[in-house]
Design goal:
CATH class: Alpha Beta
GO molecular function: catalytic activity; iron-sulfur cluster binding; metal ion binding
Distance between the termini: 35 Å
Protein name: Radical SAM core domain-containing protein
Radius of gyration: 19 Å
Number of domains: 1
Bound molecules: iron/sulfur cluster
CATH topology: TIM Barrel
Helix content: 25-40%
InterPro entries: Aldolase_TIM, Radical_SAM_PqqE_MftC-like, rSAM, rSAM_sf
Largest sheet: 9 strands, mixed
Keywords: Iron, Iron-sulfur, Metal-binding, S-adenosyl-L-methionine
Pfam families: Radical_SAM (PF04055)
């Protein structure tokens, strides 16, 4: 699906980032022959695929509308991009019903956007998930849309405790780099939201990113100082409490993943995200939601697996640059 280019999107946000993203990937353009055939790579080698082992986590994209328009938002969210419309609480309930009628072992429901708290149905669907006994993981920027729901969140925390985790995007531990990506005036509201969640005893986590040349250890040390100074109850050395994500750029060159890569890299298909998760999206113009292979590729028809969880239980061919750069290689090389 063609989406507005970043430069067009960001003009529509009050927090327009100024200048290039501090997280831009430096690589040659991706050759057109790569990632074009789900069966074989451009070199004619057998492309790797990932079977669904168990649907442990089902994600819902709540809609692409967001209060921000970050420079390299992988899903191209903005205050005006509704390519993925607000999913309804009724549609979410249908998929939860399918999990239960199918006897699936799903334990966690994730919500991502856009900004989930902009969806008017979001409190209802989150309550439904928690009332049914699932763990809920909510990805948010902790800014104004979340703060409008403080009372409802406190009630849910009181009722469900640590089954509700809020994972807040804080792209860097410095205001300068965070705002270079997210735009001016995006730092203090996010920090305020994070402090509010911490002060009120929520189970919290942070999602950060590594600028080019910064090591994992340096970043964790930087976040640790920030969390300590701000009184935020997160252990920056714990990789589940502070997740540092590799970069994504589907236009930049990257090696394709062949079946031989698993042994070369000493990785196993079962360790890849789409072995244990799927994401439900409601695309604009479609009557009902669909199930995508993962959270990273919501628009590509090649990663649309069907209308139901049952249809979406088929293996996924790793036929997208994100499969290589984000999921499998993560900075490693797969050349024999
Ligand atoms: S806050 Fe998240 S969803 Fe919104 S534009 Fe930024 S990266 Fe995208
Ligand atoms: S990007 Fe590719 S490998 Fe990664 S989870 Fe999605 S489909 Fe699977």
């Amino acid at each position: 699906m063609a989406l507005a280019r970043t430069s067009e999107r960001v003009r529509k946000s009050r927090n327009t980032p100024v200048g290039p993203s501090p997280f831009a990937v430096e690589a040659a353009p991706l050759p057109a022959a790569k990632f074009s055939d789900p069966e074989v790579t451009a070199k004619g080698e057998a492309r790797a695929s990932v079977p669904l082992v168990e649907l442990e986590t089902l994600w819902f994209n709540t809609g692409t509308l967001c209060n921000l328009a970050c420079a390299t938002c992988y899903i191209e969210s903005s205050p005006t991009n509704d390519a993925l419309v607000y999913i309804s609480a009724a549609h979410v309930a249908q998929y939860l019903d399918e999990i239960e009628s199918g006897g699936l072992a799903t334990r966690e429901i994730g919500f991502t956007g856009g900004e989930p708290f902009m969806n008017p149905d979001f409190p209802a669907m989150l309550s439904d998930v928690l009332d049914r006994g699932y763990e809920a993981l909510v990805l948010s920027n902790a800014m104004k849309p979340l703060r409008r729901h403080e009372a409802a969140l406190l009630t849910m925390r009181e009722k469900h405790g640590d089954r509700l985790t809020m994972r807040i995007s804080l792209d860097h531990y410095t205001q300068t780099i965070h705002e270079g990506e997210r735009g001016p005036r995006s730092w203090e509201p996010a920090m305020s939201g994070l402090r509010w969640l911490s002060d009120n005893g929520f189970q919290i986590a942070v999602a950060g990113r590594l600028p080019p040349g910064e090591t994992d250890a340096l970043a964790r040390a930087g976040y640790a100082l920030l969390f300590e100074g701000e009184g935020i109850a997160i252990d920056a050395q714990d990789p589940t409490a502070l997740t540092l994500f590799p970069e994504m750029d589907e236009t930049a060159d990257i090696a394709e993943i062949t079946t031989a890569c698993w042994s070369i890299l000493d990785k196993h298909p079962a360790d890849i995200m789409c072995a244990t998760s799927r994401m439900v999206v409601h695309r604009k113009g479609e009557a009902a939601p669909r199930v995508a292979a993962c959270t990273l590729i919501p628009y590509d028809p090649g990663f649309d697996l069907g209308a139901t969880l049952d249809e979406a239980s088929q293996p996924v061919a790793l036929n997208h640059p994100h499969c290589a750069r984000f999921c499998v290689l993560g900075g490693a090389s797969c050349s024999a």
